[in-house]
Automatic annotation (TrEMBL):
It comes from Allosediminivita pacifica. The lineage of its organism: Bacteria, Pseudomonadati, Pseudomonadota, Alphaproteobacteria, Rhodobacterales. One of its GO terms (biological process) is negative regulation of DNA-templated transcription. GO terms for molecular function: DNA binding. Signal peptide: none annotated. Keywords: Repressor, Stress response, Transcription, Transcription regulation. Gene3D superfamilies: 3.30.450.40, Heat-inducible transcription repressor hrca homolog, domain 3 (3.30.390.60), Winged helix-like DNA-binding domain superfamily/Winged helix DNA-binding domain (1.10.10.10). Negative regulator of class I heat shock genes (grpE-dnaK-dnaJ and groELS operons). Prevents heat-shock induction of these operons. Residues 115-337 form the Heat-inducible transcription repressor HrcA C-terminal domain. This is Heat-inducible transcription repressor HrcA. The gene is hrcA.
Amino acid sequence: MKEASELLEQLNDRSREVFRRVVEGYLDSGEPVGSRTLTRSLSEKVSAATIRNVMQDLEYLGLLDSPHVSAGRVPTQLGLRMFVDGLLEVRELDQSDRVKIDATMGSNTNDVGGLLDQVSSALSGVTQGASLVLTPKHEAALKHIEFVSLSRDRALVVIVFADGHVENRLFAPPPGQTPSSMREAANFLNALIEGKTLSELRTTMVQEIAKRRQELDTLAADLVESGIAAWETGSENPGRLIVRGRANLLGDTGAADEELERIRQLFDDLERKQDIAEFLQLTDESEGVRIFIGSENKLFSLSGSSLVVSPYMNADRKIIGAVGVIGPTRLNYGRIVPIVDYTAQLVGKLIADRT
């Protein structure tokens, strides 16, 4: 299969215009676009038969598809990718959209979580899609750590930060832990904590365990490794994912039952917080807005939906979270892209101002 950019270069002016009109018509209405409709909008006057021939060629290239024998055409996933990469005209952020987003972020609260909840709701309301906001992990210096056994296979780690922030997280400890081994693990960590963030503690801990493994009870060492892994990369809570506006997708009465079931499955996955770390990793390759269509992104491939996502950064230009909008593949990309881009930049600035 040829890359979308290579296919675009192969198209002549007429084929390119027919293709663009089909995609724009589909994104606007959600319905297949027929040759007779195009005869009224093309810049050059050509017959419906000529347009049908062009559409057949585009279908042969894998850019268009015909859902029914006698119906018009719709873009394929490859076609949408080519359109987004080469033909999409991203317009300026609409002033009314800007006002709505700015109004939501005008709060003076120092609670970053509360601010991002408001941002997520606003993004969903403005776009009429489902919004996703991945909140940053707390990166302040640590003050104290304590392990609390809850049951044979469940434990709690209490993390106290120097700025007064406290987090409680559940994790599954290695088998055979005792109160004394948990105390020993906590004492080991607390001796290393001063002035370090969780990420820095993880690096120091690995080095210290290598040097002092003989000094530690084996069970305590296992507990330390298990606990830190739960904070840094485990499935419990690598970051908090805020999902708003699922009704905007589930309430689409025009969607087929099978599509709605896929969307429900998507949100069930999100709400279980599976693969959240990957959501942030999607943005690592570039600073700007990225668009994932259908199966291009395994996190959202089950829904047959598109994701428009952008990272936001702290004052040190480090990616700490992401915002995005998910909706049907016929999203109004030209409008959604500047909204997501503006929101991400604004969130980064607001967080930097509060830290």
